[in-house]
Amino acid sequence: ALHGEGEIRLVHAVPVVNDADAAGYAEIHYGAAKDRDGLVVVTTLGTGIGSAVINDGQLVPNSEFGHLELD
Asked: Residue 3 pLDDT more than 70?
C-alpha cells in the first residue's frame, strides 16, 4: 500500500543494494564464494562496470574499485 509520496510500507524489511553487491551476496550464499575463506572479487558488466568484495564470507558493502565511463 502506498503511504505518502513514493513511500511503500511492507510487512518485511527489504534491503536495497546495488547490482554488484547483490551479485556478491548471491555468490556468498549460492555460488563459487560459498564456504570460501579469503578474498573474493565479483565483477559485473551492465550499464557500467561494478565490483563486489567478499572477505572471509562477509560482503564489504559499496566496495567499488573505481568509476569508468564509456562513450
From this structure: no
pTM of the shown model: 0.69
Extract the C-alpha cell encoding 13: 524489511
Q: Which amino acid is at 63?
A: S
Mean pLDDT of 26-30: 92
Distance CA 12, CA 9 (A): 9
Q: Kindly state the cell numbers that stand for 51.
A: 565490483
- Tell me the three cell numbers of residue 20: 554488484
Indicate the average pLDDT of the chain.
81
Residues 6+ apart with CB under 8 A from 40: 24, 27, 32, 33, 53, 54, 55
